Amino acid sequence: MVNILISGIFGHMGRNVLELAQADAQIACAAGVDLKEGELCGVPVYDSFDKVTQKIDAVIDFSSAANLDNLLAFAKKSGCALVLCATGYTSDQLAKIGEAAKTIPLFKTANLSVGVNLLQKLVKQAAETLGEAFDVEIIERHHNLKKDAPSGTAFMLAESVNEAFGGAKEYVYGRQGMVGARKSAEVGIHAVRGGTIVGEHEVMFAGEDEIVTLSHSARSKKVFAAGALKAAKFMCGKPAGKYDMQDVLA
Ligand SMILES: NC(=O)c1ccc[n+]([C@@H]2O[C@H](COP(=O)([O-])OP(=O)(O)OC[C@H]3O[C@@H](n4cnc5c(N)ncnc54)[C@H](O)[C@@H]3O)[C@@H](O)[C@H]2O)c1
After folding, report:
1. Residues 57 and 103 in one domain
2. What's this model's pTM, rounded to 2 decimal places?
3. Are residues 107 and 227 in the same domain?
4. Euclidean distance between CA atoms 56 and 30, whole angstroms
5. Which one of 5, 6, 13 would you pick to mutate in the ligand 1 pocket, going by the greatest count of ligand atoms within 8 A of its CB?
C-alpha cells in the first residue's frame, strides 16, 4: 500500500487524482494540503504541511510553482518521495529542484501522459532525421484558466528538438510586427488559450513543399491523474535522485 498526500487537492487536478486514488486498491490517500483547511471525500485537508502527522510515502503536487519551498521542506523532514506535477518553475527553482534531488527521491515532469512522453521521443527522432532543412514550430492549446504560458510541455518538446541540434536552437515566443525573415535557428513556440481545451501540442516540421506534423491531444485530465499515481507507485522506496516519466515508462 502506498500512502499519498495530494498537494493542491481542492484544484481540478487534485480532485481527479483523489477520485482515481480512491478507486485504486494499492493507494491510500492519507491527507491533502491546500490554501484552506477542510475535508474532501473523507480525506483531511490541511492549510500547512506542518500540520500533517500521517505517515506519507509520496506527495503528489498539483498546486503551484510558488509552493516549492514548502514541498521540499516537507519531503526532507518526512523522508517521503516528491512527485512534482505543477508547471511554471523559474530557472532558480529548477536549480533548487536539482539540488534537492541529491538528498530526496524527486520526480518531475511537465507532462504525465504516456502519449506525450512517446511524442517527446518521436519529435527528437524527427528532428534528427529532417535536420536543418525543416523549420520547427510548436503550437500548444489549453483552457482559458491556465496561468503559465507557454506550457511546460511545449518547453519539454522544444528541448527535445534542441537536443537533436546540439543545443543550437533559439526559442521565439509568438511573432508580432516587422520581425523579418525566419532564421533557421529559430524554434517558434505559440500558446493558444480558450474554453475548456484540456491540452493539445503540435510540433510542425515545415520543409520545402512538405510538412510533417506530430501531435497529441489530451481529452480529459484523467490521463494526467493516472500518470501521477503511476509515478507515485514507482517512486515509493526509490533512492534519492531525479526521475521523470521516461524512467517510469522504461
Ligand atoms: N504535469 C502535468 O502533466 C500537468 C497536467 C495538468 C496540470 N498540471 C499543472 O498542475 C497545476 C495545477 O493545475 P490545476 O488545473 O489543478 O489548477 P487549479 O488552479 O485548479 O488547482 C490548484 C490548487 O492548488 C491550490 N494551491 C495553489 N497554491 C497553493 C499553495 N501555495 N499551497 C497549497 N495549495 C495551493 C489551489 O488552492 C488549488 O486548489 C498547474 O501548474 C498545471 O499547469 C500539470
Report:
1. yes
2. 0.87
3. yes
4. 7
5. 13
Q: Ligand 1: which residues within 6 Å by Cβ? A: 8, 10-14, 33-35, 62-64, 66-67, 85-88, 109-112, 224
CATH number of domain containing 165: 3.30.360.10
Distance 140 CA to ligand 1 centre (A): 18
Question: Do the beta carbons of residue 12 and residue 220 sit within 8 Å?
Answer: no
How much distance in Å is there from the Cα of 14 to the middle of ligand 1?
A: 7
**Best mutation site among 87, 142, 155, 220 for ligand 1 pocket (most ligand atoms within 8 Å of CB):** 87
Joined together, the cell numbers standing for residue 185 give 535557428
Total domains present in the chain: 2
| pLDDT per residue of the chain (250 residues) written in tens, 0 to 9 | 999 999 999 999 999 999 999 999 999 999 999 999 999 999 999 999 999 999 999 999 999 999 999 999 999 999 999 999 999 999 999 999 999 999 999 999 988 999 999 999 999 999 999 999 999 999 999 999 999 999 999 999 999 999 999 999 999 999 999 999 999 999 999 999 999 999 999 999 999 999 999 999 999 999 999 999 999 999 999 999 999 998 998 8
- DSSP per-residue letters across 186-214: EEEEEEEE-TT--EEEEEEEE-SS-EEEE
- Alpha-carbon span 128 to 42, nearest angstrom: 50
Residues 150 and 239 in one domain: no
